[in-house]
Predict the structure.
Amino acid sequence: MKKNTNATWLRSLITFCLMITVFSTFTMVASAKPDNKTLMGELVFSGSNTDGESPSATINGEPAESGRTFFSSGTIATSENSSATIKLGKLGFINLTPNSNLSLSFSENKISGTLSAGQIKVFNSEGVEVNIKTADSLITNEAQQKGIFTVGVQSGATKAFAETGAVFMNNGKTVVPLQTAQDDDDDNNNSAVAPLLIFAGIVSVAVIYVLTKDDDDDRGFVSPVR
């Protein structure tokens, strides 16, 4: 009788230990599972290839088709005839022009990237911090504001324009808004046209004067026949 009691107690103890082990294993697995919603994006390609195939790009050096999942810490490169959009859910999205190369990382409230070639346009949601590095600059945003800005690399030089929100370069100065840049171009065009208008006015006055003078001379001429 005593042996049966001991055997029952031992089985109960073993069962209890197994339950604790299984529970601990599931807890560890659940804790280690990543939050896919914040660590994945979606790629959409657009454009046309000369061979008639669908536009594509590469992710980490491997060919990728439109609709593929993009994971954080990946590198995307677009071809000569393909543009791409990286959709990042609530964070926003990024457009890449052809011949662009961007290494991108993102988390719950932050987007970080390194642009080595081409041009990107960033659409960030309010509350999302954005840092874009190039060979000679670091472009950052005002995270509390919803923003749209463009960063491009050409011949080793970095250019950036903000359409909405506040965007800064590593020298601490605000990037010139796109509308201001256009206004400056308009001013330059006006300054170039003004001298032409003045010159045209002078010529017009001279022509009118000559025609009027000739008219007066004709009226004062008396024919010797009369």
